[in-house]
Amino acid sequence: MNGAVIQQKLTNTTIFRDDEKPSSPSTLTQYQGHYLRFPYTVSIKDAMNLDSLLISNDAGLLDVLRPALEKISVNIEVCAGSRAGNDLLAKRKFDAVIVDCDDLQNGFDLLSALRQTQSNAKSVAFAVVNGKTTTQEAFHSGANFVLQKPLTPLHAARCFNAALNFMVRERRRYYRHPVEMPLRITLPHNQELTAMTTNVSEGGMAIRVAGKLAKDAQAQFRFTLPMINISLDLKGQVAWADGSGHAGIRFVEVPQSSQYQLEKWLTDHFQNEMPEQLQGYAALP
């Protein structure tokens, strides 16, 4: 199984042969012909950890990176091949991506292509080099940080601690807060609809609406932020609508004062949901 993916959260795993595949696939991940069971359930705290992807088949590198990342509440997944890594980057969002540029076939090309992906163009990128790729070349290809082999635990810890603020900022950028609150929609010609949000971000929101919204239609959206009782009146555009009352709204005109209030409200919720040691990094600048 070329470039298989495993999630490295706990070292206490159980390996099964293919003919011993257990009956609860939700706790399993296939890795090179075997199945690994993770004997734990994911808590809310684990879910709000940062997520990183290591694209490398170097077990020694993983042994150094994993404890350094887990110490700062960063989950790590591993792809052992560049093709599988490229496929995963097209499907999943990661706060950090670590690419073994010199010891993985097509590793450097994968780093160069990272900034062209839709989901991970702004993820914090780490290039791991081993004498072939220069630091300047790695930065030019989109790396934010460069790690040099042989990598020591001390150097890994220092690098990831320096990058932590950027990783939290990236998570905060695409954070969506699940919340139900009523809103009023005013369409052209003073047509009004009522709706309910399902989640809100600083760039838009998902809603359930009692009526039809056409894709690309623009409207005014009025709602009151819960807990702080601040009313916002924002201009938005329908980014998508499924015809059954669900729609996604992209904010297109937000007054500066409203933007600040919305960001502060979201940041307060974001901080509360993050692991305690990361909460200080989540504050507004």
Overall description:
It is a single chain. The protein has helices spanning 44-47, 59-70, 82-91, 107-114, 135-140, 153-173, 256-273, and strands at 5-8, 14-16, 28-31, 34-37, 50-55, 74-79, 96-100, 124-129, 145-148, 177-178, 182-187, 191-201, 204-209, 218-225, 230-241, 246-253. 29% of the residues are buried. The chain has a six-stranded mixed beta sheet, sandwiched between helices. The protein has two domains: 5-173, Response regulator (Rossmann fold), CATH 3.40.50; 177-282, predicted glycosyltransferase like domains (Thrombin, subunit H, Beta Barrel). It is of the alpha+beta class.
Question: Helix count?
Answer: 7
Helix content: 25-40%
CA radius of gyration is 22 Å
Q: What structural class do you assign from the helix and strand content? A: alpha+beta
Q: Which stretches are poorly predicted, pLDDT < 50 over at least 5 residues?
A: 1-46
CATH homologous superfamily classification of the largest domain: Response regulator
Write the layout of secondary structure elements.
Elements: E1 5-8, E2 14-16, E3 28-31, E4 34-37, H1 44-47, E5 50-55, H2 59-70, E6 74-79, H3 82-91, E7 96-100, H4 107-114, E8 124-129, H5 135-140, E9 145-148, H6 153-173, E10 177-178, E11 182-187, E12 191-201, E13 204-209, E14 218-225, E15 230-241, E16 246-253, H7 256-273
Helix pairs in contact: 2-6
Could you provide a short overview of the structure?
With 285 residues, this protein is α+β, with helices and mostly antiparallel strands.
Features:
285 residues, alpha+beta, Rossmann fold, Thrombin, subunit H, 6-stranded mixed beta sheet, elongated
